[in-house]
Structures are given as C-alpha cells and as structure tokens.
Amino acid sequence: MTTMTISRAAGKAGVGVETIRFYERKGLIEQPRKPQDAGFRVYPEETVHRIRFIRQAQELGFSLKEIDELLSLRADPGADSADVRARAIAKRDEVEQKIAHLQDIQLALDELISACPGKGALHECSIMETLSDVGTPEDVAVSPKKRKARND
Amino acid sequence: MTTMTISRAAGKAGVGVETIRFYERKGLIEQPRKPQDAGFRVYPEETVHRIRFIRQAQELGFSLKEIDELLSLRADPGADSADVRARAIAKRDEVEQKIAHLQDIQLALDELISACPGKGALHECSIMETLSDVGTPEDVAVSPKKRKARND
DNA sequence: GTTGACTCCGTACCTTCATACGGAGTTTAG
DNA sequence: CTAAACTCCGTATGAAGGTACGGAGTCAAC
Fold first, then answer.
1. Is residue B140 within 8 Å of A11, Cβ to Cβ?
2. With pLDDT > 90 as the criterion, what percentage of chain A qualifies?
3. Which of A103, B6, B20, B143 could form a disulfide with B148 if both were Cys (CB 3.0 to 4.6 A apart)?
4. CA–CA separation, A122 vs B77, rounded Å?
C-alpha cells in the first residue's frame, strides 16, 4: 500500500501540493494529524473527494467562501436540498447579471468600433472622442467637505 | 477662483482623493508640482479630463494597464485611429469569450437546478451529487514525482 | 490665533486564489 | 550509508484596483 502523502493526494485530486496547503489554511479541508512517531501526514480518500468537490463547484462559479458554506451544508444533518437549490439559483442569477453587464459592454464596444473610421489621425477617432469627456458634468460642486458652502 | 486642490479635482472627476493618488503612483496621471513657496498642489483641468477618460475606459472593460496604453497612444502624434480600433476589437472579442464562458456556467447551473427536487434530504440532492465526485478518475497515477514508478 | 478641515507622504491593508521560497526534517532507493 | 526526493512550516509574492492610517504641514474662517 502506498501511503497517501500530500503530493499523492494532490495528484489524485488534480491540484498542486501548495493548493492543498492553501485550502488547509483556509479551513476548507482538514489537515490530518502528524503520525505519533514522526513522519509525514497521511491523507484520507475523503480529502481527495473534498478537493474534487471544491474544484467542481469552482467551475460553476462559486467562490471558495461559498464553497465553504456548501461544504458545511453537506456536513449538516438537518440541511435540506432546498438550501442547496436556493444557492444554485442565486448563483445562476448572479451569473446572469454578469452576462448582461458584459453584453452592455460588448454593445458599446460594437458601436464604437463601427463608428470608427479605422484609419487616419487619432483626433478623428470616434473611440478616443467618446472616451475623452464628451458629456462633462460641468463642475458637480463637490468641493472639500465642509468648506464647500463657503465663499472662498 | 477656487484653487483646484486634490479633493476638488477628485470631486469633479467623480473619484476619491485616494484614487487620484493611486493613479499618480501608477503613472496614469501626472502629479502637479508643489508650489514654490509651500502650499498645496494645484491640479489642471487636464487631469480631471484624464481621470474621466480612465473611468470611461474602465466601464468598457479596459484594465488600468490597457488604459495606460490608450493614454500613451493619445499622446503619440504618430498614432493612428487603426491602433485604437484594433484594441477595441480585441477587447470586444475578449468580452465575447467571457460571455460564452459564463453562459456555459449558466447552462450547467440550470441543468442542476431543474434536476434538483428542491426538497428532502441532502443526499437526494442531485446538485450535491454532481459536485461530489461522480466521475472519479480513479487514481490518475500522479504520485511523488520521480519516486512514482517504484514498488513502494 | 485657534480650531477644524485639508493636504502630503509613505506605508500598510483589503480581496481572491493561489504560487514560490528557504531551510529544516524525513524517507527511501540503491 | 548516502543522496535525491519529498514533507513541513512560515512567510513572501503576484495581479487588480483600490482603501485606510498616522502624523506631519497648511490654510481659511471667525
């Protein structure tokens, strides 16, 4: 039997050794005890599964903090499928928002690109013009905080 | 005439004082000289325009590093509209990629959500099941680097 | 002429997710 | 037995884009 050292666990889980240590520091996985009579820590299969869970969830856009919560739910005997579902829905909505935001950006870029001649001097470039203050809000009256109303 | 101190410039540009200092450190904007006979630095209108440019570009998804390049282009008399256009196109493609990635995630989440009963114990939750290694690649033979082929 | 609000400046801190380093100690192949 | 490879542990670094702090110095109003 090969002993499951940290590098073997990392290999099985498809991550680097440093990543496991990082997860341990973050409290996402538990660090096994050191053998009584000196030697290397031995990692249980459970840890490998746990790391795979973490990576799967990351691919779905969950942050390590959120994954920590999912893992806690998993350990909670009173936890309900509805909890997990709700989180998945929240994450989906979040992703949806991000997509919408990026689509706005994409649209704006498309407009700039099609309006730009693509040749000639920069001062005729509509992209640069747009970026340089066009709709300057003209002195928004934000002066140093309490001094502003004064006649200085 | 009110003197354009850093906080007034910040107010006009719609950013915080610390943000201006940060941009100065990053070399995105130039720090005005201190008056000869002591006092506060006076910011030209140019700086306010420049900060607005930065923020506009940021909203289009450009990083500060990229914005620095755009600003250099702007200052370059030999710069061509085509340069800017090419950058905009590259950025749009980048945004497109991100959207595609997020859409994949969204789809995966949607599938998980619709497969989940939404009630009942966690061990019947298809989401948790999916996250927990289902398709375990079973011992991918990644052992400590050179020692792996040995019969240990 | 004092007080309160700012400026100035460097440095430290924040978040996220790791990766890298250095100098122990340990293990194992040969 | 020895040397290579690995573990252990703390600390440092990276990008990105700021925010916060602390102790000067300055300025402006009353």
1. yes
2. 62
3. B143
4. 8
Look at residues B103, B107, B127, B133 and name the one whose alpha carbon lies nearest to residue A86. B127
How far is the alpha carbon of B30 from chain A, nearest alpha carbon, in Å? 17
State the amino acid at position A11 in one-letter form: G
Q: What is the mean pLDDT of residues B95-122?
A: 90
Identify the residue with better confidence: A130 or A114.
A114
Residue A146 has pLDDT above 50, yes or no: no
Q: Is A109 on the interface with B (CB under 8 A)?
A: yes
Residue among B28, B68, B73, B25 at smallest CA distance from B46: B28
**Amino acid present at B98:** K
What is the spatial distance between Cα B50 and Cα B29, in angstroms, rounded to a whole number?
7
Determine whether the interchain pair A8/B142 forms a contact, defined as Cβ–Cβ distance below 8 Å. Answer: yes
The pLDDT tens digits for B109-128 are 999 999 887 787 777 788 88
DSSP state of B104: H
Q: Is the CB of B22 under 7 A from strand D?
A: yes
pLDDT digits (tens, 9 = 90+) for A1-26: 578 999 999 999 999 999 999 999 99
- Say which DSSP state A123 is in: G
**Rounded Cα gap, residues B42 and B4, in angstroms:** 5
Q: Is B30 on the interface with A (CB under 8 A)?
A: no
Check whether B139 has a pLDDT greater than 60: no
Alpha helices in chain A (DSSP H): 6-13, 17-25, 45-59, 64-75, 81-115, 126-131
| Per-residue pLDDT tens digits for A77-108 | 888 889 899 999 999 999 999 999 999 999 99
B12 touches strand C (CB under 7 A): no
Among the listed residues A74, A82, A66, A23, the one whose alpha carbon sits nearest the alpha carbon of residue B133: A74
